[in-house]
Fold:
Amino acid sequence: MSAGAPTSDVVATNPVERVVRAADSFQRRHAPAAVVVGVVRKFGDDHAGMLATSLAYSGFVAVFPLLLLFVTVLGFVLGGSDEAREAVLRSALVEFPIVGDQLVRSLHPLQGSGVALAVGLVGLAWGGLGVTQVAQHAMAEIWNVPGVRRPGFFPRLARGVIVMIVGGVGLIATSALASVSTFTGTLTPGRVAAITASAVLNAVLFLAAFRITTVRAIPFRQLVCGAVLGGLAWTGLQALGGYLVGHQLRHASEVYGFFATVLGLMSWIFLGARVALYAAELNVVLARRLWPRSLTQPPITQADERALGDIARQEERRPEQSVDVSFEHRD
Structure:
């Protein structure tokens, strides 16, 4: 059956069903709409909403320990200069446009004996690695990597360390640019250049994160489109967040206090997690040509069969195990 064929021989009997079938027929005939539907369907097939929640929770739990680690290291590197430390910290916390100022005021370097400090820093770094483990699991689920082909604990740990290093370096660079690339004021040439540079850096960071957290069997070229989209989307979120702070949420900390900090930070991280996972899903849909997907069934499309087959084969856990998938077509 061709992609643009009617979704069923049965005539819809109610207005809602007719609208849905008309939309289904339209998206099957038009590739851009079919890709969008394919990404949304793939997101649901992979239970990526739960993956985003898990990633956001891990990120929320890790962000304060990581910031404490960051502040403490700055204290050593900058020789105790409070002004320099606060300047760098404010630059990094531009990534959290609603709660950045409150976090700056709340964070203080870890102090104590050298041994206690070393133990604390190791514990904080280990906690921060948790989010990188969740990210690698999410990428394996999105790419439907069979369990038998997923990397072991120590390779995942090594990748997590690399993600933290790359992310830390990129955080400073993108935050400095994001501090001026907002929708406030006029679009001067300098501001346009900052927005462009921020978008490029964000896309590069997304691409690096996708490459590190995705199994090596996935070619590099299949990660580019989603990284570019993710970088543009994250740049837009940063700019929009700056606009909201400047025009709508100037007094949010005074009105909502601690609850605004927690809820704002959690919401921002959750939104970022969903952006990243949707970008990753786009990579899979384009790489495997998982469109058009059906909105109404029966019948299912060939893209549906490929997607469902990948999900089934993902459950292989042992080298001796082989999962075969077949579909019974009904007229």
In short: DSSP finds eleven helices and no strands in the chain. The two ends are 11 Å apart (CA to CA).
